[in-house]
């Protein structure tokens, strides 16, 4: 689309023109999209424009009404601004009924920037994890996340159960555990828990 300042100037000029030639009734500002175009319309119920003058109204100081005088430079400037933005300014009018000016600007489809890095799911397939988590909800959520990543998880709620699990497991498959213990849980465990568990790793 075009420069916001230019668009604002065109709309201001069109509204000023409508106010100048409308004593009563309505002035309506519309905005909509039509395919690959953005349309801004200013419709008024003013004196209207003589059909023989309609093709000339974007020229400077064209006389549109004997009582109101010419259009001045506003429509000329607006038309040139529209062209500079790749658009067009057009008008339709019926004398004693009103006029409608339409600004059409091309829409440019925005494209999202390509991310520099692509997030990849962490694969934990084949890992056997021992999770120490004393909060049941946190434990369940963590286990589900780890299982989704392919890990085999055994979850316990305290250090004593962790040691018991390690004693049983290592008799069958020695040294196959990876310990996971969140800091918040570790701070609530007995002071020497890590010394008792460390020997299993």
UniProtKB/TrEMBL annotation:
UniProtKB keywords: Kinase, Phosphoprotein, Transferase
GO biological process: phosphorelay signal transduction system
Domain Histidine kinase stretches: 1-109
Transferase keyword on record: yes
Coiled coil location: none
Signal sequence region: none
Domain annotation Response regulatory: ranges: 128-201
Reactions it catalyzes: ATP + protein L-histidine = ADP + protein N-phospho-L-histidine
UniProt xrefs under SUPFAM superfamilies: ATPase domain of HSP90 chaperone/DNA topoisomerase II/histidine kinase (SSF55874), CheY-like (SSF52172)
InterPro entries, sorted: CheY-like_superfamily, HATPase_C_sf, HATPase_dom, His_kinase_dom, Sig_transdc_His_kin-like_C, Sig_transdc_resp-reg_receiver
Cited SMART domains: HATPase_c
EC main group: transferase
EC numbers, comma separated: 2.7.13.3
CDD domains: HATPase_EvgS-ArcB-TorS-like (cd16922)
GO MF term set: protein histidine kinase activity
Name used for this protein in its record: histidine kinase
């Amino acid at each position: 689309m075009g420069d916001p300042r230019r668009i604002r100037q065109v709309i201001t000029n069109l509204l000023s023109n409508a106010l100048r030639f409308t004593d009563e009734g309505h002035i309506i500002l519309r905005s909509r999209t039509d395919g690959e175009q953005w349309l801004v319309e200013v419709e008024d119920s003013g004196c209207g424009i003589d059909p023989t003058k309609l093709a000339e109204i974007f020229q400077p100081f064209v006389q549109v009404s004997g009582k109101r005088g010419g259009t001045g430079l506003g429509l000329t400037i607006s038309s040139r601004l529209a062209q500079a933005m790749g658009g067009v300014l057009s008008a339709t009018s019926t004398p004693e009924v009103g006029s409608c000016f339409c600004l059409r600007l091309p829409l440019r489809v925005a494209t999202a920037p390509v991310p520099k890095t692509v997030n990849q799911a962490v694969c934990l397939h084949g890992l056997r994890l021992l999770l120490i988590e004393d909060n049941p909800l946190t434990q369940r959520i963590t286990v589900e996340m780890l299982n989704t990543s392919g890990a085999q998880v055994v979850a316990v709620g305290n250090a004593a159960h962790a040691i018991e699990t390690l004693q049983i497991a290592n008799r069958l498959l020695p040294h196959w555990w990876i310990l996971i213990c969140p800091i918040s849980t570790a701070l609530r465990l007995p002071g020497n828990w890590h010394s008792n568990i460390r020997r299993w790793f």
